[in-house]
From TrEMBL:
This is YegS/Rv2252/BmrU family lipid kinase. One of its GO terms (molecular function) is kinase activity. The keyword Disulfide bond does not apply. It comes from Halobacillus amylolyticus. Its cofactor is Mg(2+). PANTHER family: LIPID KINASE YEGS, SPHINGOSINE KINASE. InterPro entries: ATP-NAD_kinase_N, Diacylglycerol/lipid_kinase, Diacylglycerol_kinase_cat_dom, Lipid_Phosphate_FormReg, NAD/diacylglycerol_kinase_sf, YegS/DAGK_C. SUPFAM superfamilies: NAD kinase/diacylglycerol kinase-like (SSF111331). Keywords: ATP-binding, Kinase, Lipid biosynthesis, Lipid metabolism, Magnesium, Metal-binding, Nucleotide-binding, Phospholipid biosynthesis, Phospholipid metabolism, Transferase. Residues 1-130 form the DAGKc domain. Pfam families: DAGK_cat (PF00781), YegS_C (PF19279). Belongs to the diacylglycerol/lipid kinase family.
Length: 292
């Protein structure tokens, strides 16, 4: 059996390299022959992972934050042979690890690699790239670009919340056309979210009913509302009751096409994505993750 450990030495508090030995020891005991690689720049994790797929590795471990994990998964999805995926979260938010109940403490997450249990989980295709958590269009979507790396290190999830609330205070809306499966929604929206998992930007209750393997996107259209209603919607997000709000339209979809008469950017798993129009589809239970 062959395992590749993909290490981003710059993730989180730059401590990834300190954990490599522990991971190698655990995997060696499980009988793996190991190749450890370090990323040096953007997309290295994707290339390493593609290489692991082509060379029929059995396991790929991502040691880094959500960015590294996302790049690793992008290297995995289009391949015929897809190794199992191990996740050691070292980032600020670690949404995918949260959604899969993988411990956020690296030592504990490393012990999960001893497990023989795996879970097949959905991935989302967004134009030509892949995501595992969420696509957002609108106010909150833009907020994450305003969070500086310093704020992220110091305040974590709170940094996103603060910037998000600042953006929300502007109550700007966006004209959207959303085609989902066989239906169309057109109107002014403050924020549109399409979630694959329950955990987004560290809020584990944003979409509580979303399961990592249910094969659908959980979509929320937050319509044009005044400030008071918006405050109530914001607090319902934290309580896991967003879909029950009267100015929120909730539906599930396997496919989506989103367009606007305005030039709008998107946010895909916390990073800036393509501008509208975009198409999104779910690839059900497409990757297999090692879980506790
Ligand atoms: N050696 C490197 N130096 C600088 N950047 C790198 C290096 N290797 C990879 N990267 C880039 O760093 C980006 C951020 O990494 P990652 O998300 O793992 O860490 P993070 O930013 O600390 O985590 P989080 O986003 O959860 O806060 C990756 O998307 C990758 O493109």
């Amino acid at each position: 059996m062959k395992a590749m450990i993909i290490v981003n030495p710059t993730s989180g508090r730059e401590e990834a390299v300190d954990y490599v030995k522990q991971i190698e020891d655990i995997l060696q005991k499980k009988g793996y022959e190991i190749k450890t690689v370090q990323t040096e720049k953007e997309l290295d994790a994707t290339k390493y992972c593609q290489n692991a797929c082509e060379n029929k590795f059995d396991l790929v471990v991502s040691l880094g934050g959500d960015g590294t994990l996302n790049e690793t998964i992008n290297g995995l999805v289009d391949q015929q042979h897809r190794p199992k995926l191990g996740i050691i979260p070292l980032g600020t938010v670690n949404d995918f690890a949260r959604a899969l109940q993988i411990p956020l403490e690296p030592e504990k997450a490393i012990r999960v690699l001893q497990s023989d249990r795996t879970k097949k989980v959905d991935v989302g295709r967004f134009n030509d790239q892949y995501f595992v958590n969420i696509v957002a269009v609108g106010a909150l979507a833009e907020a994450s670009y305003d969070v500086t790396p310093e704020q992220k290190t110091k305040f974590g999830t709170l940094a996103y919340l603060t910037e998000g609330l600042k953006k929300m205070a502007s109550t700007q809306t966006y004209p959207l056309r959303i085609e989902h499966d066989e239906k169309v929604w057109e109107g002014d929206s403050f924020l549109f979210l399409a979630a694959l998992t329950n955990s987004t930007a560290g809020f584990e209750k944003l979409s509580p009913q979303a399961k990592v393997n249910d094969g659908v996107l959980h979509c929320y259209i937050i319509k044009k509302v005044n400030m008071i209603r918006l405050a109530s919607i914001a607090s319902s997000m934290a309580r896991g009751e967003l879909r029950n709000q009267k100015d929120v339209e909730y539906f599930t979809a396997e496919n989506l096409k989103i367009a606007s008469s305005e030039d709008l950017v998107t946010n895909v798993d916390g990073e800036e994505g393509d501008r509208l129009p975009v198409s999104i589809e779910v690839k059900p239970q497409h990757i297999e993750v090692v879980i506790e």
